[in-house]
UniProtKB/TrEMBL annotation:
Species for this entry: Massilia forsythiae
GO CC, alphabetical: membrane
Keyword line: Membrane, Transferase, Transmembrane, Transmembrane helix
InterPro entries in UniProt: Bact_transf, EPS_sugar_tfrase, Sugar_tfrase_EpsB_2
Domain Bacterial sugar transferase: 282-465
TM ranges: 12-34, 54-75, 87-108, 114-137, 284-310
GO molecular function, one term: undecaprenyl-phosphate glucose phosphotransferase activity
Subcellular location: Membrane
Name used for this protein in its record: TIGR03013 family PEP-CTERM/XrtA system glycosyltransferase
Tree of life domain: Bacteria
Length: 470
């Protein structure tokens, strides 16, 4: 893993993305070359009237397909699936979406259009190229040299959780667990045959080198008495990667684990960028995105409003108080998706998956996120951002603050129409669900950037396309 604007990015995914960009640009040139040969013309781009336009066209083609594949979730890898059905189920829709995007691009910039004959060949070659690239990629990923050999310092519950995470990771990173260095202050929660007993006088560095360790994960909850800080420093100075459990969890799950989190890690760990530049860029991003979405979806919003009214002749909009940035109360606006008597008892209730209070029209709007569109008005007013933690009702916030550690941290930024927790986790109907979503929200608050906002918008499109609304 490496970081782009504080967000962890898998090296494996980055390499795959880079290779497929080259494949797609190469497919554009190969398609043009084949078309020239069919027409009996020399396959020389220097003879074209605007060769620089063709390069731009090739880049536009690659960008459209990569965006579409991202929206279909094709870069959220699962090595257990490999090239089985999910790959084909997503590749064809990706190409259809890419074609629609290109149609819009060519309409706006007709000079970039390189003809139907070339375009058909380009898509055919690109499909074969992407399949070949993925086949080579998944076969290569099975090789052991791509694994990271890891050693865990600790043998208690935290070490077990981290090792389970490493062992069951089927997406972005593969680990080979060398073993565990036991801690005398912890109960044994890991397999005893994986414990590493060092000979008297043998250092942690020697043990790590003897077993070919590349990374050491410090997974000891109680670091008092006998904690090998000097030996860990020696390992780091000799080129071994040393990672603490909180960072390991953040890197592998894109969450911040709160039950064993030390406040000092949040204070000194970096992130939490609330600078003027970041705030200005985010506000500009919000205004631009909201304006574009409002322009594109205004006819859809009119249709949704009519459908809600025809459903039961009740109110079209639903306004509710929510907790925003710095704990300030504001009213959020949505298309009404529940019956008018949804809370006839007068007591707030958690929204649940397959909630019987949701109307038929409301169920469709929730799955496709149409019910959220009126919140664009909240974004224009500056009460919300386009991307951020989901705003919650004060009744639930007061309860969650009491039982969920660090819950108030999510109120240090503006709430959003969509967010990291919404695209990564399902409906929340309990304090446990709120804890899981908070761990995603904390990751966003700590690592928020324009880059991460764009990734969340792409993931939101995937949620809408597959009707897996949160």
């Amino acid at each position: 893993m490496f970081r782009i604007s504080n967000h962890y990015v898998s090296k494996i995914v980055f390499v795959l993305l880079f290779v497929e960009v080259l494949v797609l640009i190469g497919a554009a040139y190969a398609g043009a070359a084949v078309r020239f040969m069919e027409l009996g013309q020399p396959a020389s781009f220097a003879s074209m009237e605007h060769p620089d336009h063709f390069l731009t066209s090739a880049i536009a083609f690659a960008a459209a397909i990569i965006f579409s594949m991202s929206a279909m979730g094709m870069y959220q890898l699962n090595f257990n699936e490999g090239l089985r059905n999910p790959f084909f189920m997503k590749l064809m829709p990706s190409f259809v979406m890419g074609f629609l995007i290109l149609t819009l691009v060519f309409y706006i910039a007709p000079d970039l259009y390189f003809g139907r004959g070339i375009l058909a060949l380009v898509f055919a070659i690109a499909g074969a190229g992407i399949f070949t690239a993925r086949m080579v990629f998944f076969k290569t990923s099975e090789l052991r040299f791509l694994e990271t050999r890891v050693l865990f310092v600790g043998s208690g519950p935290l070490a077990k959780e981290c090792s389970d995470l490493a062992q069951n990771n089927v997406s972005y990173h593969r680990y080979n667990i060398a073993g565990f260095i036991p801690s005398p202050t912890e109960e044994l929660c890991v397999p005893s045959n994986k414990l590493m007993a060092s000979r008297e006088g043998e250092s942690l560095l020697s043990v790590a080198r003897k077993h070919g360790v590349q990374e050491i994960v410090v997974s000891v909850q109680n670091r008092r008495g006998g904690f090998p800080i000097k030996e860990l420093l020696d390992c780091k100075l000799q080129g071994l990667k040393v990672t603490d459990a909180n960072t390991f969890f953040e890197r592998e799950t894109y969450q911040i684990r709160v039950d064993s989190l030390q406040p000092s890690w949040l204070v000194f760990g970096g992130g939490f960028d609330q600078s003027f530049v970041r705030s200005f860029m985010k506000r500009a991003f919000d205004i631009i995105c909201s304006t574009i979405i409002l322009a594109l979806t205004f006819p859809l919003m009119l249709g949704a409003a009519l459908a809600v009214w025809l459903g039961d002749r009740g109110p079209v909009f639903y306004s509710q108080e929510r907790v925003g940035e710095d704990g300030k109360i504001f009213r959020v606006h949505k298309f009404r998706s529940m019956r008018t008597d949804a809370e006839k008892s007068g007591k707030p209730q958690w929204a649940q998956q397959n909630d019987p209070r949701i109307t038929r029209v409301g169920n469709f709007m929730r799955k496709t996120r149409i019910d959220e569109l009126p919140q664009i008005l909240n974004v224009f007013k500056g009460e919300m951002s386009f991307v951020g933690p989901r705003p919650e009702r004060q009744y639930f916030v007061e309860q969650l603050i009491e039982v969920v550690p660090y819950y108030n941290v999510r109120h240090s930024v503006k709430p959003g129409i969509t967010g990291w927790a919404q695209v990564r986790y399902g409906y929340g109907s309990s304090a446990e669900d709120a804890l899981q979503k908070l761990q995603y929200d904390l990751y966003y608050v700590k690592n928020n950037s324009l880059f991460l906002d764009v990734l969340i918008l792409i993931d939101t499109l995937k949620v809408v396309l597959f009707r897996s609304g949160r």
